[in-house]
Design goal:
The protein is mainly alpha-helical and 444 residues long. Helix content is 75%, strand content 0%.
């Protein structure tokens, strides 16, 4: 008769070997159900994973064959109205939701697609029709000739001549004529302003003619007439010639030769020196300041026929005013100037740009104090002009210290009203003529 397992283990319990056998026997009896349960679970998981992979493989093959069929036989789909698109999208969502129960429960449920995303995908599928895209690109690439209308020509020529800058030049020339110590003559004044305006239009038109390839890279100048092709270069040069010749003739023979010579020199300085220097050196800013300082001198010489200390004083005021005005403007346009290839202080020497602006703001205070000493104004002028000069100097100091767009913008907008107000104060404090007091006495 064979002994039972319990009897065999009881006999072996007397020693160390019997204890080990008893421990192994007990562990085999108690842990066998747990091992069997884990084995069944692992098999079920493997079966679910295999089933899921099979399902994904079938879906991939179906989608691939469908895309191949669509590529082989493209059919342009008509653009459906919005309510039909929503209906089709609703059907697509129903199909997606019907396929979801096939996914195993152990896997993470995918995110529910948003209705906006589905509408975006559907609209993209409609617009990506190869025939429609080809038609759009063909129409975009087609060259269209711009027709010049006679009604648009005055506005185009006004932008070509920089009409706002021309108005500033004419106003400073008028101030120089009015501040001259001579009786005001209307015919000479009208000829001076007309000739100076025509000369300024000619210089600005030639400047835009030379800078077309560079203006096209800047956001500030990309809409100019020559850049957009609204007029031809030949028409721009012809317009500049039609402005320069009568303008110089009026200044030379209608006013005096000195004023005409200053007009010719200013056109040459602006077109042949300042314009090419903008891409070579930062010295272009100083040359451009000289160009802006000549118009009030032309007004003075038109009234007096000579270059006096008062003419150079007015030219000095305009010369110093342009540095805070232009440096503050160029500070916000540094990206544009660098794209256009222009060599400006704000791009290459930002510290010098701020110092020069502050330096010339303070120089305006000194030049205003020198006006009565040169018999241009009375001593009241430097006193009443001191607040606005100190204010622009304060903004120049803020621009020098902060070096940001906010301070530069404040300085630029201050310069826009500072110059007209300063010239009006000079006119109100103009020194009376020498013989005005005895004008009512009869001659001896």
């Amino acid at each position: 008769m064979a002994p039972s397992p319990h009897t065999l283990s009881a006999r072996l319990l007397t020693g160390w070997g019997g204890g080990c056998v008893w421990y192994l026997e007990r562990s085999a009896v108690w842990e066998s159900p747990h091992r069997l349960r884990r084995l069944l679970r692992s098999r079920s998981k493997q079966w679910i994973s295999f089933q899921h992979c099979t399902f994904l493989r079938r879906m991939y093959v179906t989608q691939l064959s469908r895309s191949l069929n669509q590529q082989a036989k493209p059919k342009p789909e008509p653009v459906a109205p919005p309510f039909l698109e929503k209906t089709a999208l609703g059907g697509a969502k129903d199909e997606i939701y019907e396929m979801r129960p096939l996914s195993p429960p152990s896997l993470s449920v995918p995110r529910k697609p948003d209705e906006k995303e589905l509408m975006g995908l559907a609209s993209a599928a409609v617009t990506e029709d190869p025939m429609a895209v080809g038609k759009e690109t063909k129409e975009e690439k087609q060259w269209k000739e711009m027709k010049l209308s006679v009604d648009d020509l005055p506005g185009i020529l006004a932008r070509l001549s920089k009409i706002k800058l021309t108005a500033l030049v004419v106003s400073t020339t008028s101030a120089g004529f009015a501040l001259a110590p001579e009786p005001f003559a209307w015919p000479c004044f009208l000829l001076t302003t007309l000739g100076t305006g025509l000369a300024s239009c000619a210089a600005n038109s030639i400047n835009q003619f030379f800078e077309v390839p560079f203006d096209s890279n800047m956001n500030r100048t990309k809409n100019r007439p020559l850049v957009r092709g609204q007029i031809s270069p030949l028409l721009a040069v012809s317009f500049a010639a039609c402005c320069a010749v009568p303008g110089v003739a009026l200044l030379t023979w209608g006013v005096n030769p000195l004023t005409g010579a200053l007009g010719v020199f200013n056109i040459f300085l602006y077109t042949c020196c300042y314009t090419p220097l903008k891409r070579v050196s930062i010295a272009n800013t100083w040359v451009g300041a000289i160009v802006g300082a000549i118009p009030p001198i032309m007004g003075w010489t038109a009234a007096t026929g000579s270059l006096d200390a008062g003419a150079f004083l007015l030219g000095g005021i305009l010369y110093c005013w342009q540095f805070p005005h232009f440096n503050a403007l160029s500070w916000g346009l540094r990206e544009d100037y660098s794209r256009g290839g222009y060599c400006m202080m704000s791009v290459t020497h930002p510290g010098l740009c701020r110092r020069v602006a502050l330096r010339h703001c303070l120089a305006l205070v000194a030049l205003s104090a020198a006006a009565p000493a040169l018999d241009v104004t009375t001593w009241t002028f430097p006193v009443i002009a001191l607040p606005i000069n100190l204010y622009i100097s304060y903004l120049g100091f803020r621009f020098y210290r902060d070096a940001d767009r906010k301070s530069s913008r404040k300085l630029f907008f201050c310069s826009l009203w500072h110059l007209p107000l300063l010239l009006l104060l000079m006119l109100s404090c103009k020194r009376p003529l020498a013989g005005s007091s005895g004008a009512g006495e009869p001659p001896s």
